[in-house]
Amino acid sequence: MLLTNGEKGENEFIFRKAYFTYRNNIMNVKNKILSAMTVVIAMVSMAWAQTGTPDYSWYTGPNQSTYEIANADQLRGFANIFNNTATAAGIARYGFANATIKLTADIDLSDYNPWLPIGNGGDISVTADRYFAGVFDGNGKTITNLNINNTSSNAALNMAGLFRNINGGEVKNLAVVNAVVSSTQENAGVIAAVVQNGGKITNCYVLGGTITGTSRVGGIASAIATSGGIISNCWATNAVSGTSYVGGIVGNTPNATNATISPVLVENCAALNVSITRRSGTDTNFGRVTGTTAGTRANNTAFAEMQAIEFTFAG
């Protein structure tokens, strides 16, 4: 059975893609998760290697409304332009604040291992070099083999996720499969580290894989900032571990009454993670959907057989 975190929702996306599948065939989903984890274990044993060549041919200059990305080399090219690391190719930094980046094909990131997050790097004194305020439309496509191994204490490099910060922007309609994210620093997520200033993660899912960090770790995102943000219509099956503020969907959510720009909202999400683990310490901010009870949570659901390792779920 599935347990409810707040009211059980009837949202079509969640219950078409997650609820009925997992309620009616628990053994099937366990097998899928175990299979995904087997792939992950194999990937972890591989040596880190950057063998791709960033492609900027898709980039027609700034101020376009839409940019289309078709492969891993182009996605790395987009990240480099955003991170201000494409100058060697003669391309100045561009923040894509008013643009839509749209995937047109599934993407395998095996050639970019480890992945440097979109927003990690650049000039740490320039906020725009780190914060994404555009729209990243996955267009129903899948990113596989996202691998992040973050050990840097450098403030410009210390967050882990496909994106560093979604800052008033949105990531939507995206699947991430077999992601392996490991960080010795705070704030580790798969889709993004932090959602802030009204940023959104919508209609996304994370299938299989593992994410390991310290404080603020989540299967979708590490945290929603006090400025507010929304995570909706998302689900995750990955194994999540950290030392504090750890959740199947998002690790840390602040008090909604303190939000300065938008609500702090997690809604219509399904935490189907194989396990949540407290790696060390005695912190109690661990949960199936969110690591804390702060913020607004509505119509979320969670996998009843999710393992709580080294702690006990509160409910």
Total count of strands: 30
Shape: globular
Portion in helices: 10-25%
Q: What percentage of amino acids are in beta strands? A: 35-45%
Query: What low-confidence regions span 5 or more consecutive residues with pLDDT below 50?
Result: 1-17, 19-48
* Beginning-to-end CA distance, first to last residue: 15 Å
State the helix count: 3
The description of the largest β-sheet is: 14 strands, mixed
Question: Which structural class fits the helix and strand makeup?
Answer: mainly beta
What would you report as the Rg, rounded to the nearest angstrom?
A: 18 Å
Folded structure, characterized:
- With about 325 residues, the protein is mainly beta.
- The protein has helices at about 10-25, 25-45, 70-85; strands at about 1-5, 50, 65-70, 100-105, 105-110, 110-115, 130, 135-145, 145-150, 165, 170-175, 180-185, 190-195, 200, 205, 210, 215-220, 220-225, 230, 235, 240, 245, 250, 265, 270, 275-280, 285, 295-300, 300-305, 305-310.
- The strands form 5 sheets. Strands 1, 3, 4, 5, 8, 11, 14, 15, 19, 20, 24, 25, 28 and 29 form a 14-stranded mixed beta sheet that branches. Strands 9-12-16-21-26-30 form a 6-stranded parallel beta sheet, with helices on one face.
- Strand 3 (about 65-70), helix 3 and strand 4 form a beta-alpha-beta unit.
- The two termini are about 15 Å apart.
Describe the structure using short key phrases.
mainly beta; 30 strands; six-stranded parallel β-sheet; 315 residues
Task: Write the topology of this structure.
Layout: E1 2-5, H1 12-24, H2 26-44, E2 49-50, E3 66-69, H3 72-83, E4 100-103, E5 107-108, E6 112-113, E7 131-132, E8 135-144, E9 147-150, E10 163-167, E11 170-177, E12 180-183, E13 192-196, E14 199-202, E15 205-207, E16 210-212, E17 215-218, E18 221-224, E19 229-232, E20 235-236, E21 239-242, E22 244-247, E23 250-252, E24 264-267, E25 270-271, E26 275-278, E27 286-287, E28 296-298, E29 300-303, E30 307-309
Parallel strand pairs: 3-4, 4-8, 5-8, 7-10, 8-11, 9-12, 10-13, 11-14, 11-15, 12-16, 13-18, 14-19, 15-20, 16-21, 17-22, 18-23, 19-24, 20-25, 21-26, 22-27, 24-28, 25-29, 26-30
Antiparallel strand pairs: 1-29, 2-6
